[in-house]
Amino acid sequence: MASEGMIHVIDDDEGARESLAFLLSSAELTVRTYDSAVRFLQDFAGDTTGCIVTDIRMPEMTGLELLVTLKNRGIVLPVIVMTGHGDVPLAVTAMKGGAIDFLEKPFSDDAILAAVGAALNTNHHDARKEAERSSILERLATLSQRERQVLEGLVAGHANKRMAYDLDISPRTIEIYRAHVMSKMRASSLSDLVRMALAAGINIAQDDGPTA
Q1: What's the angle, vertex CA 133, arms to CA 132 and CA 137, rounded to 5?
Q2: Residue 153: burial class (beta carbons within 10 Å; 0-12, 13-18, 19+)
Q3: Tell me, what DSSP letter sits at residue 200?
Q4: Residue 47, SS3?
Q5: Do 56 and 70 fall into the same domain?
């Protein structure tokens, strides 16, 4: 993978930060690391190419707060957020706030390299994006009403138990519908499904109810 700008890695966990920097550097990418979002904003030189890979839970400034600040400052670099298990609702909020993807830790080397590669190409394929959106809408049209409800629950960050309670069906049935949704939408992961739903313009209102 040839370098197409600086990859800014932001994570307060030194081990995770350096491990990710090593992986990206091994893929011939130019990487700079920061131990906080505040440090990144202090050091950022105004790059117009590259991307940002940031943890979502950090002291001083969270990944969500960073997204707001980037928008306010007119910084348009694509952002990938990294989350721990159970932070999917936060990740969905981040994507609604402008992040282009999220990855749940622990993620594979292939997953982060693919996400960064897609981020680097974000600004070069507007026509392809529109074609992809049309394809996503076609896939959405194949979902049954119940499958669409499960899709909306997943995008809202609801766990299987929560969706089962809301729809008055068993958690096992939710698992079956979830598998159907992933198959019909051709989604390789939850983050892929969320990206598709948001690209298609699905607006899901999240609440503060239980997610487990």
Answers
A1: 120
A2: buried
A3: T
A4: coil
A5: yes
As a whole number of angstroms, the distance between CA 169 and CA 150 comes to: 11
**In the listed set 83, 106, 124, which residue is the last one of a domain according to the structure?**
124
List the beta strands (DSSP E) in the chain.
6-10, 30-34, 50-55, 79-83, 101-104
Place of tokens 């979002």: 37
Phi, psi dihedrals of residue 59, rounded to the nearest 5°: -70, 165
Interval 83-139: pLDDT, tens: 876 677 787 888 888 898 888 888 999 999 999 998 888 755 555 666 788 889 999
Structure tokens belonging to residue 146: 């119940």
pTM over 0.90? The answer is no
Residues spanned by the domain of 28: 6-124
